[in-house]
Amino acid sequence: MDDPNPEAPSSGALVLTAGVFYLLMTLVGLGLIMVQDLDLNRIVLGDGAQVGRDALVGVGCGLLVVGLTWLCRELEAVQTLNQELRALLGSPSSVAIALLAVSSAIGEEIFFRGALQPLLGLWITAVLFGLLHGGSSRRFRVWTAFAMFAGLLLGGLAAYTENLLAPILCHMTINYFNLHLVVGSEPS
Questions:
Q1: Where are the domains of the chain?
Q2: In the structure, what pLDDT confidence band is assigned to residue 187 with cuts at 50, 70 and 90?
């Protein structure tokens, strides 16, 4: 099968580029956490007493967002956004999508919810999260708005659970299924 966009990166190049980017984002986030003298173990898993609850809340919220995204998939603005993203991503494999979902969820949650949210608060962090996902580009406004909403949800999960496990799992779930939706493949 011919790739519809020969300029799109291969799965390997996409994963490598994203992996380096999210590793750097994670390291900056960890540095900011250390500067704030926050307990990294507590930030990621809380006191450990509610790990099961936090995991279920995170995956459950992620599946709800995926369901809402699926219901909106026929809207013209969503279809246009998916075409734009598909042109950028190409046709990554299911393994590449899984690696992107994991690396982006960990990197972005450590940076935004673990490091920035304690400094800037929920609302400013959510706005920054949205702007960094689509910026002011007209073609990505739907993505920016979705990311701001997601930033509020993920930040709320971090505040509610007092750790990053729920937001990481929520983010990972959303990215895994929505990347499959964007590139037009079935999740494995």
A1: 11-38+52-183
A2: low
